[in-house]
Write a structure and sequence with these properties.
With about 950 residues, this protein is mainly β. Helices cover about 5% and strands about 50% of the residues. Strand 40 and strand 41 form a beta hairpin. Belongs to the fimbrial export usher family.
Length: about 950
């Protein structure tokens, strides 16, 4: 009987002391509402009760009476415990906390009884006060400390109050402004940042690819021989020479020194020795497989990460393992920065990014409030009265506040893309209105006034294409927002040896005609046995939004470098080639060095049904006669009666000896997407058409259908047919299809395609696992660099983590909530609709503010036990009065009687004994002894039974 009593106590908490169950979407809730059974605190609310009852009872409480037509009985019911309004009984409630009408969090708050009061009072712990924004430095340290778990609201301020709405499970807290910290919107106190628990993480991506090719016609350009630099013949695949470019990339070159060998590796060859070997026909069959692993270990605030890959090829029969990078990172909370040791990349904001192996520290903008990230100007003005201030952009209201008479400052606007001038309206209390404009355009260099961004790196250049020495270097950068219109920045790069030194200085300016950034880099490079090079590079960036025409110059940048300027990557690659070629002549190396670079992006929104137009263009020229490259792209998209269509056009231009002078490549395309279903249809398939013309490749037409199916749209599919009319007059028709499943613990995909000359098939799987203190839990997707939560919900198998795709609670009661935002309050919710009716979630939502990469335990309380609906009558056959109190054998209240003698109980597997009381007399009490029927075929459906109360 002890076990039964314990389960009944759980039921009591669910039905009486914890009305938070009203949020749980389970069969229990719907049955209770249908039968008139509800938590006592909710039933007891009188018609005249206010929407938000105070914690202290009203001076003249209304008399509570129930109509006999409602109760279904002429007998009186003792409801004196509800005569003082909507009482808050002692217990734990999962409530939404609002501070001065602003939602702060959803948390479990304990209410304790207070002498002389019929209403329980809330207890706040130190962490909750911090989360509510209380300035804890102003409070009595003996009363308000980190160890005190029950701090009364009166300890915060004598004027602070708390009101509980039991029906809405909302706790409204009013705190005077002087007792709160002044903080930017979106601020989350570092005291709430959670580094989580020790855990091992692994994300994986597996792909197997099979290709069978056959061709019977002549083939003269697919393979051949070349003379290697050592004088021996080398089999090669392609018909073009390649040269090592910046960062070790191989780029086409008429005088290059590398070619792609048949072993898949680039091999050095002599110039001008390539000779294609004609082939009459061929067939090949190749199978290769790939495994990518992202590994992680969290321990004592350190986040150790490693990226590994493995490749297997049927032709060679070999498996090649590669370590991409390994790092260890830790937060520096005081500086709002990160410390990383291992492999990584420099920030790439001031200087071009450089791969390195070493240590770095950099400021982390993610640790700033949302309203302090990116660039937005500070709004300053003056109010003559107690005024309402609106800040609008393009007619949209961004911010509104009330200010006191005198000067005011608004410094926590959220960044909005690349800007758009702000209109500030000041509505005075006397009815007058005055307005003014604040220019707002942004380039990546702009920062808010008073905000700084910095980075320091010390390490070795980590470029795997380098064959010789990899120099050590240091880099430091700093940006500082001076005021609304000016940001200054600078940086330095230097190798340990006297190979390379660079200094950069610049400024970003916000003006009414747009935002500009200008910087100049001075570099000096000294190669052994060669003359030093000293040069400069100038970079200009521009951005502007024109709201009246819907035009956005997202980013326009121009860079000019003189002939002696080298970047750090250029210098390192040049030295490596000079060493390999045993030369001190820079002309022998013939490195591609940028001369001019221009990038422009323009977006035009015509508004309404007129659609959107975009344009992007880039032009790159190089020193020493290297081929230039120019690309333009133009596109238009719109929707007509749910039909989406887009038109694209692009033009590429390259010039150089290998292209026989100048070469143009024009492309034109049309894309149409048509939904095959009504606007309200679920899993509507999409019919897609596309047509593309390419001057070089020819014409390509494609038609297909794709969509999703399944209760949660967890399955996706696609089927396509394409026709390619190549420029060499060889046409080809291809049919292909794909099928995917977003399973609860992995993502699975497969594809197949067929044409006259090849057959291709592939299968892939992606997912992850976490090893934590509760065991091993699988996840459908996992990025070890993102913060995750380990959901623990005992016995709630099948509950879905609403914020994490198809992730569901496994048979052990665990699930992975992925992609949490670091340093922000995240809501993690569980959808209980897939769980057994024998399980009830006490709460369906928890909040957490994880640190970057943290693994956060999230415990969802559950109540498990067999659910039963009892229809009880008195011994004389009369209905038990509605609202009668129900208690277990130990006198613990477990709920109230519903209409028609209906009673819901959870927890007893075989049966139990309950006491029912609707008055103080002996004839106003009885006992119910019930026995449940045995389960049939493992059914978990809610049981029903009849019982007599004697």
């Amino acid at each position: 009987m002890k076990a039964t009593r314990t389960k009944h106590v759980h039921a009591a908490r669910a039905l009486v002391q914890e009305p938070r169950v009203t949020r749980v979407r389970t069969l229990t809730r719907y049955v209770m509402l249908a039968l008139g059974i509800a938590p006592a605190a909710v039933l007891a609310a009188p018609a005249a009760a206010p929407a938000g009852p105070a914690l202290e009872p009203a001076a003249s409480p209304a008399v509570v009476e129930f109509s006999s037509a409602f109760t279904g009985s002429s007998q009186s019911v003792d409801v004196s415990r509800f005569e003082k309004g909507n009482p808050v009984l002692p217990g734990s409630y999962n409530v939404d906390i609002f501070v001065n009408d602003g939602r702060v969090a959803r948390k479990n708050i304990t209410f304790r009884a207070v002498d002389g009061s019929a209403v329980a009072q809330p207890c706040f712990d130190y962490a909750t006060l911090v989360q509510m924004g209380v300035d804890t430095n102003r409070l009595d340290p003996q009363t308000v400390n980190t160890q005190n778990s029950c701090i009364a609201i009166g300890a915060v301020s004598g004027d602070a109050t708390a009101q509980m709405d039991v029906g809405e499970l909302r706790l409204d807290v009013s705190i005077p402004q002087e007792s709160l910290r002044r903080q930017a919107r979106g601020y989350v106190s570092p005291d709430l940042w959670d580094q989580g628990e020790t855990a091992f993480l692994m994300g994986y991506n597996v792909n197997a690819y099979s290709l069978n090719q056959s061709y019977s016609g002549p083939r003269t350009s697919g393979g051949g021989t070349a003379v290697g630099t050592d004088g021996t013949q080398v089999d090669v695949q392609g018909a073009q020479y390649y040269a090592a470019g910046p960062g070790g990339n191989y780029v086409p070159s008429a005088t290059g020194s590398y070619m792609l060998g048949n072993n898949g590796q680039y091999v050095p060859v002599q110039r001008g020795t390539y000779a294609p070997v004609p082939r009459v026909g061929y067939s090949s069959n190749d199978v290769n497989a790939y495994l990518g692993l992202n590994l992680g270990l969290n321990v004592m605030g350190w986040r150790i990460r490693s990226q590994e890959t493995a490749q297997w090829d049927q032709r060679t029969g070999r498996t090649r393992w590669t370590n991409i990078n390994t790092t260890a990172t830790h937060d520096i909370t005081r500086w709002k920065a990160q410390f990383t040791i291992g492999d990584g990349y420099t920030q790439g904001v001031v200087f071009d990014t450089t791969p390195f192996r070493g240590i770095t520290m950099y400021s982390d903008d993610r640790m700033l409030p949302d309203s302090q990230q990116g660039y937005a100007p500070v709004v300053r003005g003056t109010a003559n009265t107690q005024a309402r201030v609106e800040v609008r952009q393009n007619g949209n209201l961004l911010y509104q506040t009330t200010v006191a008479p005198g000067p005011f400052v608004i410094d926590d606007l959220y960044a909005t893309g690349y800007g758009g001038d702000l209109t500030v309206n000041v509505f005075e209390a006397d009815g007058s209105v005055h307005s003014f404009l604040v220019p707002y355009s942004a380039v990546p260099m702009l920062l808010r006034p008073g905000v700084g961004r910095w980075s320091i790196t010390d390490g070795q250049v980590h470029n795997t294409a380098l064959r010789n020495d990899k120099p050590y270097f240091v880099e430091g950068t700093y940006q500082r927002g001076i005021n609304n219109w000016l940001t200054l920045y600078g940086g330095v790069q230097s190798t340990y040896r006297d190979l390379y030194h660079a200094y950069l200085g610049g400024a970003a300016v916000n003006t009414p005609v747009g935002a500009f950034a200008l910087d100049v880099t001075r570099s000096r490079t000294s190669f052994q046995g060669a003359d030093s090079l000293s040069g400069y590079s100038t970079r200009v960036s521009y951005s502007k939004v024109i709201p009246s025409s819907g035009t956005t110059f997202a980013l326009a940048s121009y860079r000019y470098s003189n002939g002696n300027f080298l970047s750090l990557s250029d210098a390192v690659v040049t030295q490596d080639l000079m060493t390999s070629m045993h030369t001190s002549s820079l002309t022998t190396v013939n490195l591609m060095r940028s001369r001019q670079r221009l990038n422009v992006t323009v977006n035009q929104n015509f508004g309404g049904r007129a659609g959107q137009l975009y344009f992007s263009g880039s032009r790159n020229t190089y020193w020493q006669g290297m081929p230039s490259a120019t690309t333009y792209q133009l596109g238009y998209s719109n929707t007509y009666r749910r039909v989406n269509f887009g038109i694209t056009a692009s033009r590429s231009y390259t010039a150089g000896p290998m292209y026989n002078g100048a070469h143009y490549d024009n492309q034109f395309g049309l894309n149409v997407s048509i939904p095959l279903g009504g606007p309200s249809s679920r899993n509507t398939p999409m019919l897609q058409f596309s047509a593309m013309h390419d001057d070089v490749m020819g014409d390509s037409d494609r038609a297909g259908i794709n969509g999703t199916f399944g209760k949660e749209s967890q399955f996706n599919y696609g089927a396509y047919a394409s026709y390619n009319d190549y420029s060499n007059s060889r046409a080809q028709t291809t049919a292909s299809g794909n099928l995917g499943w977003q399973a609860p613990y992995a993502n699975l995909n497969g594809s197949y395609s067929y044409s006259d000359h090849y057959q291709q098939a592939s299968v892939s799987a992606a997912g992850g696992l976490v090893v934590h203190r509760g065991g091993i839990t699988l996840a459908p997707q996992l990025d070890p660099n993102s913060a995750i939560g380990i959901v623990e919900a005992p016995d709630a198998k099948g509950a879905r983590v609403s914020s994490s795709g198809q992730a569901t609670v496994d048979g052990r009661g665990y699930a992975v909530a992925s992609n949490l935002m670091p340093y922000r309050m995240n809501d993690v919710t569980l959808d209980p609709s897939g769980t057994s009716s024998d399980v009830e979630l006490q709460t369906t939502r928890l909040q957490t503010a994880p640190r970057a990469g943290a693994v956060i335990p999230l415990k969802f309380d559950t109540v498990s036990g067999r659910a039963v609906l009892i229809h009880a009558t008195q011994a004389d056959g009369k209905v038990i009065p509605f609202g009668a109190e129900v208690l277990d054998a130990d006198g613990q209240s477990v709920g109230t009687m519903g209409q028609g003698g209906q009673l819901f109980v959870r927890g007893a597997e075989d049966g139990g004994v309950l006491a029912v009381r609707w008055g103080s007399g002996a004839d106003e009490q009885c006992h119910i002894q019930y026995v449940l029927p045995a389960r049939t075929n493992g059914s978990e459906a809610m049981a029903t039974t009849d019982a007599v109360c004697r």
